[in-house]
Structure formats: structure tokens, C-alpha cells
Amino acid sequence: MLTMKNKTKKSHTLKRLLKYALSDYKGQFIVVIISIIISAAASVVGIQFIQTLIDQYITPLIGKQNPNYSSLLQAILMMGLVYLVGIIGTYVYNRLMINITQGTLKKIRTEMFEHMQRLPIGYFDSHSHGETMSTYTNDVDTLRQALSQSIPQVFSAIVSMVSVLIGMLTTNLYLTVIVLIMVAIMGIVSRFFAKNSSKYFIGQQESIGKVDGYIEEMMNGQKVVKVFCYEERSKERFDKLNEELYKSSTKANTYANTLMPCIMNIGNIGYVLVAVVGGIFAVNGLLTVGSIAAFLQYIKAFTNPLAQVSQQLNFVAMALAGAERIFKLIDEPVEEDNGYVTLVNAKEENGKIVETEERTGLWAWKHPHGDGTVTYTKLCGNVEFEHVTFGYVPNKVILHDISLDAKEGQKVSFVGPTGAGKTTITNLINRFYDINEGKIRYDGININKMKKDDLRRSLGMVLQDTHLFTGTIKDNIKYGKMDATDEEVIAAAKLANADRFIRHLPHAYDTMISGDGEGLSQGQRQLLAIARAALYNPPVLILDEATSSIDTRTEKIVQDGMDKLMKGRTVFVIAHRLSTIKNSDLIMVLDHGNIIERGNHDELLAKKGMYYGLYTGAIEIE
Question: Is the pTM of this model over 0.70?
């Protein structure tokens, strides 16, 4: 039953893969098929011509005193033209298959990337980045091999074998029976080897993904590896993964590489048998010399494609394994968004908020109702949690009955041990994850009703782990507002106190950076992230340990800019340095997903609870 399911799955994968190729290249694909048929037909006609050449042109000339070779030369020329047509057909279908293959792979990569952009954050939290990269590289490369070579060769081989079989049947039935018996043996052998190699090729692709994922982890964490002297243990782990890849690859290629010699040798045995039986027939006048010569060529023309098919089926199996992984990524459920409240530019007219095409600096939530009416709510930045309960996985609650009310312009801070749920709260505001129970309201509107893109467009984030992209300093600051002017970029950099160090770079704001800001210090990268948020100018700002990677001296430089950035906004701050949140309007102390204390700095110190212990150092924040 499992085998039938696997066969059905592979068949479905192959059909889906071919559908990609046929959807945009149907005309070229038809030309490919015609070219393959012409190429195969030319090969068969050429073999048939050998019989005619020997029996009608060469044999009559044997023993003549003054033979006339003109007719023989004409026949050879004609034969050359036939083979030329076959060569042209072969060139045409191979050339077209390059276009079809590269175009199809481009389409698949584009669809994969576009689909990946719509996947929820949870997918990336549960899948290795390296393994996902392996899908883009190794798995796609196996498709290139299959589409450009394996599948056309299999089809060409089948057409050739059918054509040759017809030629053999018209030449001699008895010799054809001998060939078919040998072919049946080849088929049994091929099935055995292909079945086993296919299984191990699938394992090989999975192992490649694991190895790539582990290498990516080790590269990103190389400093940590060295600091903790983890080199030997990392080697042991890599050796284990590499051993799995070695075993699956060795077994897959052992079966694959053994197949061709076995098929060829069985074909050679058939060749000898036909030569012996054909010789007996010729001696008894049942076959001509030309017929035997042609038939021996038929055997080569029949067994060689069969061997090719057997060999290419291994590559097809490997490609289908890669295609399954690709389609698995493409079929991953996208982030659902049933929101209908959108963010629009607005202006005030006669005391009312109305929608406008102009950028006025005023934003409003456009809320359509079931009765056909539309209301507009000014975007202020009021965020309210009402008895929110959440867990990343079922039956494992992270946040328990969280309630808070952050008013416009307030600075709300979260403190507590690692794992208390601080970052989780900010992830819920962005709707990176949806809550299990309760409600989150934004300006009085349930965020489940808001379009996720519009909700996130109103929020700015500065994370502890900054993410810069290959490009100029200017491009990285403009990441959230690509139409910003140079003056706006510089103003944002000055606000974050980044302008000074930027102007000392080789090309100032046009300096190219790569590798997530390689060449910049952690503090400088953090300043650029803050400048990016400043330029984005959101009404609500989330600072997730945004200054934890900055040294004390740099922190003082940044703090002034941060204060300016936070002015007039609703700000959520997660900080390990309690000195940065003393001026917060509201401080939430979390422990194991519960808010155990709330109030401002002075109120919490007066309670002499956990916050007091954290602030005075009596309790370690970790």
C-alpha cells in the first residue's frame, strides 16, 4: 500500500513539474517532440539503409573487374543527408530544452521566493535557514539536470526503441524474439536497481538539506563556537550528518552506477546470440549479409537507449525527490489575513476625518461595516490587551491572562527574566502570531479585523539583532520608506546620532555594506537600525532590547536620539538595562508569562518586589 502511495505521489509530482514547463512553453515543447521524432526516425532509416547499401550497392560490385562506384557514392551521400537531418533534429531539441529548462527554473524560483514572503514567521522559527537554502540550490539543480537532459533523453530513447523495434520486426521475427527476451531481462535488472537507487536518492537530498542547514548555523555562530571551544563537538555533529549523507549517496550511486554496466553487458550477450543465430540463418540462405549487419546495428540502437533510460531514471528519481521538497515549500500554508480595516491617508474637514489621496501626515483606520457604511478612526497608537492568553504550540501556554492599556504617547516597558514572555507580547502586537484567547485592540479596533500589512505599516521595530542588507548606507536607512529624500535620510541619521560616524566612512551615505553590515561595529549597526525607524516615523514603536548591544559610552550618545525618537509615540520597550526605562510611564514586570507587578519606576521601587530586587541587583535579571 505504501509503495502504491509513493508511486502515486511521484506521478503527481512529475505531472505537476511538467505542467510548469508546458504552461509557458507549449509551442516550443511541441517542436521538441517533433525534433526528437525526426532524430529517432533518421537513426532508424540510417540503419535500414545499411541493409540496402550492402545488399544492393556493395555486394553486386564484389568481383567486378571495372566496378562503377557512382551509384554507391550517391547512396552514401543520401545516407549522409539522412544522418544530417537527425543531427539537426537533435541540436534543435537540445537547444530548445535549454530555454524551456531555464525558463521553468526561473519560474519555480520566483514562485518559491514570492510564496516564502507570504509564509508566517512561525515557519522560519521551525525550519533551518540552511535547509531552506538547500531547496533553492541543490533541489532546483536536480530539476535542471532532469528537465534539460534526463526527461528529453528518456522520451527520445522511448521513441527510438519503438522505431527500432518496428525496423527489427520487418527484418526478421525470430531474431527480434531473441532481442525481446534479452530486453525483458534488462527490464527486471533495471527495475531492481532503479527501485533501490530511488530510495537512497531521496535520502541523499534530505541529508544534503540537513548538512547545509548545519553549515549555515555554524557559519553564523562561528564566534560563539570559538569562544566556547565548541570546535570538536561541532565537528562530531558535522561528521555524523556527513556520514549519513555519505551512506545514502554511496548506496544511491552504487546502484545507479552499477546499472549501466549490467545493462550494457546483457546487451552484449544479446548481440553475440543474434550474431551466431543470424550467421546460421545466412549460411542457410534465410538472411542476407546486409540484413545481419542491419540487425546488429538495430540491437545497439535498441539496447543503448534502454541503458540510457535506466541510467536517466535515477536522475529523474533524484529530481522528483528535489521537486517534492520544492513543492512542499510552495504548498506551505501562507499567512492568513482576513482583515478588512485598512490604513489610509486622511485629513480633517469640518471636524470630521475624511480619506484623501494626498500625504497629509495624518493616518486613519478605514473601517467598512456590514450595513455598507464606512467609519474613519484617527491613528493615535492606543494599544490595549484584554485577558490575552497565548502559546506557540497547543497545550503549552506562554502568556497567561495578560491585560494592559498603553495610551497614545506613553512609554511602556517590559522587564523580567529570559523566557518570561516579553518579546512574545510584541510579536502579538505585530500579529506575527494570533492569540488563543482574549482581544488586542488598536485605537479601539480589534487587530484581527485589520489588514496585517496596514497594521505593520503603522508599527516600527528596532531589534537587538539588527538586520542590514547589501546596499548603501542610505538604502538601508530608507528600507521602510524608499521614496525618502536625502535630506530626510540625513535628518533621521542625525536624530539617531548616526550621522557623525556615517560621514567618516569612505563614501559616507553611499558606502556599500554587505554581509549584514560586515565592517561595522555592533553599535554602528544598531544606530543604523534606529535611524531606519526614525525615518519610517511610525506612531507606535517597539524597541526589543535595542540598546543591549551598545556599550555604555555609545548608549549615552544614543539615548538622546532615542528620547527624541520616542517623543509623541506609543513605545513598547524591552530592556535588560533598567537604567534605560526609569522614565517609562508604565513598567510591566513579567515572570513565567504572568504580569506580577505594574507601575512606574518609583511605585515599583516602593513595593520592594521583584522590580526592586532587579534594580538593586538583589535578583539577577537572567
Answer: no
| pLDDT per position as a tens digit, 320-377 | 777 888 888 888 888 888 888 888 888 887 778 888 877 777 888 888 888 888 888 8
CA atoms within 13 A on the CB side of 285: 0
Match 549517496 to its residue by C-alpha cell. Answer: 249
User: 383-616 — its CATH code?
Assistant: 3.40.50.300
Hey, is 250 helix, strand or coil? helix
Strand partners, 590: 595
Which residue ranges make up each domain of the chain? 2-330, 342-378, 383-616
What are residue 574's phi and psi, to 5 degrees? -110, 120
CA-to-CA separations, 248 to 131, 142, 180, 199, 356, in angstroms, rounded:
17, 16, 34, 9, 62
User: Which class does domain 2-330 fall in?
Assistant: mainly alpha
Rounded-to-10 torsion of CA 195, 197, 203, 208:
-150
Helix and strand numbers (H, E) in the chain are 19, 16
Got the DSSP string for 355-405?
E-SS--SEEEEEEE-TTS-EEEEE----EEEEEEEE-SBTTB-SEEEEEEE
Q: Which of 382, 402, 379, 406 is nearest to 390 (CA)?
A: 402
Rounded CA separation 189/259 (Å): 8
